[in-house]
Amino acid sequence: MRARKLRPAAFLWLLLPVFAAAPAPALADEVDSGWPEDALPADALLTGEEIYRRVLLNRLKAYEQDSRIVSGDRGGAEQESSLTIQFRSFKDANDEPTDGVHSKTRLEYTEPFDLRHTAYLVIDKDDATNDQFVYLPTYRRIRRVNLRGEAVFGSDFSFEDVLPRDLEDAEYRRMADENVDGVPCFVVEATPNATANSEYSRFVFVVEKDRYVPLTIRYWNEAGVQFKELHAEYESIKLFDTAWIPTRSTMSNLLMESWSKLSVLKLIPNPPFTEALFSVRRLERR
Fold this sequence. Notes:
By secondary structure, the chain is mainly beta. The protein has helices at residues 48-57, 159-162, and strands spanning 62-73, 78-89, 101-111, 119-125, 131-136, 141-144, 170-180, 183-192, 202-208, 214-220, 226-232, 237-240, 243-246, 248-253, 258-269.
């Protein structure tokens, strides 16, 4: 598989003793299912990569999303931010990048007041480092940035947590299935490619089987410690055009004992975005 850099994502994330990551569950292929080999259910034959490919198929080609993030910690302090995300895929009918571009994402803060109109542009490129820009209204200028590990306004979400990932970003292996509150789920471990610009050493996606929506995502840092966990509320999953999307989720930082709740306030599926909307110059235009 071709190595390619992960897109650092933009915005949408006391200390406890550091603990070692728990041993990984066995691969699904190594688990005795109890079925005769020639009568295995179809989902038992899926590899980790095939499962994650189906997760990606449950994605809109373009969307505009208004979200609110409320963050808190064990001391009771809370803060709130709001932002608008505009995303467009630039893949063609054969799922290939157009002019070397997979997708473009524009993110703009709407709250708090002192961050209003701060805007980011992330261009996910094929076989190249992604382009990332920020417009700072205080300085009235655009500059190139590296968003690796940067949090969304004091929340437990980093930019990497919020922007869509592509199949080429990692290597995948299937693990033993789990149940989340009685919901049957696939489990897939994703390890970012060696050259990926990721703040994580690996992820584990727990994906419900009916609609291929991740209900839980676990994150390990470069020291091999699981330090964050995302939970999507099953009851909040709604259909937007052709995609099933959770509208409420919580990211927890297991070491800092902090949390951030993300709510999707509005989502417009497949709006008629022009390419000009995702130009660098457009970042500073109101």
